[in-house]
Design goal:
binds ligand LCS; five-stranded mixed sheet; 12 strands; alpha/beta; seven-stranded mixed sheet; Aspartate Aminotransferase, domain 2
Length: about 400
């Protein structure tokens, strides 16, 4: 192979997750990207500072908007998500806030899916109307309903796929086609899938947001968020959403932890997915379980879409125990390996009850209408030995009645 064709060779996902956007030779040979623990940056001359502020010279000015450790992280994730640029911020909520508050104005319309992480739903439906932004809710699994709800005033649509907590999938390509026909932006929260399992920008999405607190970090030790899009949109989000509106910067130390997490992302997602499929099958075959939602089950209404849209099904499962809420909570209290906690995407297997926890901010009626029943439980399958996870669940389920 010639040197030229080797240069053009595309590296695999993990190779890019480990090497992209960093050359040790630029940093005294340090194999791991340094943590630039500084709040501000010195200007060589007074004129340089002015040039940078006017955007006439590239460089680092002040840590709220840009830091070299952040830059490595942003470029690396942008590469993995197939985006032109990325913006690291202080949390998943900060990522969504950055996008909607930078890009929407009074009188604009946003159409959102009816099943979102509770605080995202509360933020979009309660905060945005206070600033004159019109918020409409639709069932995005029904493309006809989306077509009906959007109009030429629709500046943006927002959805999660898979959705938190009930694992509904939404057809990204079909939705993007409909929304682009009125000139709207498609924003997708890709937290559950990660770029290992799904790359929405390659399927027509304009912006991807992540709670990097979850799989991207992967070890339950950081809160962080990412915005990915065109260089133009990311610059607007940086200069308005991050610099002025939220100020929610991600600390250089947390950037370092996230870079470390990314190195094993593909490996971890494979194991999360393999173990979750085994758990989903156990739940499906258990006489004390009423329903199981996991897109990797052939009986799932989302199985065909998952085949087209995803490279695996991920680590999240939702299910209902026979006997409803009381039996569900009893089951949770019997677990020994699995930890009762919110969050997801960690090495530890976690279980939570959306109606009283992550989705408690929804009204009771809204929750029922949006497919989040009172008895629904959500599991985030971790990286423990799957036999131990299966035994824990089987024991707890057998003992609920
Ligand atoms: N998007 C999704 C899909 C989420 O699940 C979460 C948090 C967020 C955004 C917000 O991200 P954060 O600000 O927390 O980084 N989801 C949580 C959950 O299901 N349990 O605890 C937090």
């Amino acid at each position: 192979m010639s040197d030229q064709s080797r240069k053009n060779r595309e590296y695999g996902f993990s190779t890019r997750a480990i090497h992209e956007a960093y050359d040790p030779n630029d940093h005294l040979g340090a194999l791991t990207p340094p943590i630039f623990m500084t709040s501000t940056f010195a200007f060589e001359t007074a004129e340089d500072g002015g040039d940078m502020f006017r955007g006439e010279k590239d460089g680092y000015i002040y840590g709220r908007t840009k830091n070299p450790t952040q830059t490595v992280l942003e470029k690396r994730i942008a590469n993995l998500e197939r985006a032109e640029a990325g913006l690291a911020v202080g949390s998943g909520m900060a990522a969504t806030s950055c996008v909607v508050l930078s890009l929407l104005s009074a009188g604009d319309e946003i159409v959102i899916d009816h099943t979102l992480y509770g605080n995202t739903f509360a933020h979009l439906t309660q905060t945005l109307p206070r600033f004159g932004i019109i918020v409409k809710i639709a069932d995005f699994t029904n493309i006809k309903e989306v077509e009906h709800k959007i109009s030429k005033n629709t500046k943006m649509v927002f959805f999660e796929t898979p959705a938190n907590p009930n694992m509904r999938l939404i057809d990204i390509e079909a939705t993007a086609e409909v929304v682009h026909s009125v000139g709207g932006l498609v924003v997708i929260d890709n937290t559950f899938a990660t770029p290992v399992l799904q790359r929405p920008i390659s399927m027509g999405a304009d912006i991807v947001v992540h709670s990097a607190t979850k799989y991207l970090g992967g070890h339950a030790d950081i809160i962080g968020g990412i915005v990915l899009s065109s260089a133009e949109i990311v610059t607007t989000c940086r200069q308005h959403g991050l610099r002025w509106i939220t100020g929610a910067t991600l600390s250089p130390f947390n950037c370092f932890l996230m870079l470390r997490g990314l190195k094993t992302l593909e490996l971890r997602m494979e194991r999360h997915s393999q173990s979750a499929l085994k758990v989903a099958k156990l739940l499906q075959n258990h006489s004390n379980v009423d329903t199981v939602s996991y897109p990797g089950l052939e009986t799932s209404p989302h199985y065909d879409l998952a085949q087209r849209q995803m490279n695996g099904y991920g680590g999240l499962i939702s299910f209902e125990v026979n006997g409803g809420l009381t039996a569900g909570l009893a089951m949770m209290n019997k677990l020994r390996v699995i930890t009762r906690a919110v969050s997801l995407g960690d090495t530890e297997t976690l279980i939570q009850h959306p109606a009283s926890m992550t989705h408690a901010v929804y009204g009771d009626e809204e929750r029922a209408k949006h497919g989040i029943s009172d008895g629904l439980l959500r599991l985030s399958i971790g990286l423990e030995n799957v036999e131990d996870i299966l035994e824990d669940i089987d024991y707890a389920l057998n003992d609920v009645h």
